[in-house]
Amino acid sequence: MNRIKGFGILFLLIILHTACKKSPEGATQIYPDPLPPGTFAKGADVSWLTEMEASGKKFYTNEGVEQDLLKILSSKGINTVRLRVWVDPAGGWCNTADVLTKAKRAKAMNMRVLLDFHYSDSWADPGQQNKPAAWAGQNITALKTSVYNHTVAVLTELKNNKIIPEWVQVGNETNNGMLWEEGKASASMKNFAELVLSGYNAVKFVNPDSKVVVHISNGYDNALFRWMFDGLKNNGAKWDVIGMSLYPTAADWATKNTQCLANMTDMVSRYGSEIMICEIGMPAAEAAASKLFIADIIAKNKSLPNSKGLGVFYWEPQSYNSWSGYKLGAFDDTGKPTVAMDAFLP
């Protein structure tokens, strides 16, 4: 009987040791088990996190308990984080060291990582694709080398810390290419395709299993996506995943989601690509509509044939009190998640 009791106690200790991990602060917390590759990504871009914390921002559960943001997000079903990478940003936010800090925290929570290279010192999006200051005078040949070397350097730093991003974006919302003017797609799709290929080759050199994402906005605009990906394909670019952004309103989200599904289905059929919704958002003040929108786009992405839908990411949900002027978060002005985040729950 005593031997049986001893085995029972030993078994319980093993279970507790497996389930409980030490947080960076030393507190014992029970985290979810690591997710295998291929698990549907319920994600959040949290690139502002360290900057918000440094400014004194705190985050709270719906019950008003102060808690680490990643733990709050995990409790809402988020299993993956997206982190943007800037080359030499003012203040250091989103540079390699800052990205590594956030990636380590995500890994400690058994969250996966989508890395988002902007190839800029600041925001890159459909309205601006500015070269980093250090690359300002470079021609297309030099820019391809810079893209390759920067991508390898960042991924190697993460890999040296045992962090392998499951997905890597080569460019952010590159509706008209990147690294303007040389990489502007409307001026030279060939140049843009070669830049994408440089990024693709760099990713595969460091982490062959990481999937490369080419990301553009307006996921409902099939004509834009056909123009872009026909152009990239015809000019020798490679990618694994087509990434989309989608920012509808409370009034038109159902229509935009239906158009997005048609576009996603066409991208799967036309290129055989997997599809990820890399960014979504809606005003925090419209949380109820946002919850419906999120639940619907998750279902539509999951419905793609042959499990080609990989996941959906909310962009900076933790921004509140109009942090940096941004009003499309999913936390209220007291720092608590709105009902919109419940759409990610199982």
TrEMBL record:
Classification via Gene3D superfamilies: Glycosidases
Protein name, as recorded: Arabinogalactan endo-beta-1,4-galactanase
Keyword Coiled coil belongs to the record: no
SUPFAM superfamilies, sorted: (Trans)glycosidases
Known EC number: 3.2.1.89
Entry keywords, A to Z: Glycosidase, Hydrolase
InterPro entries assigned: GH, Glyco_hydro_53
Signal peptide positions (record): none
Record's catalysed reaction(s): The enzyme specifically hydrolyzes (1->4)-beta-D-galactosidic linkages in type I arabinogalactans
A single MF term (Gene Ontology): glucosidase activity
Family: Belongs to the glycosyl hydrolase 53 family.
Pfam families the record matches: Glyco_hydro_53
Entry annotated with the keyword Glycoprotein: no
Domain of life according to the entry: Bacteria
Any one of the GO BP annotations: pectin catabolic process
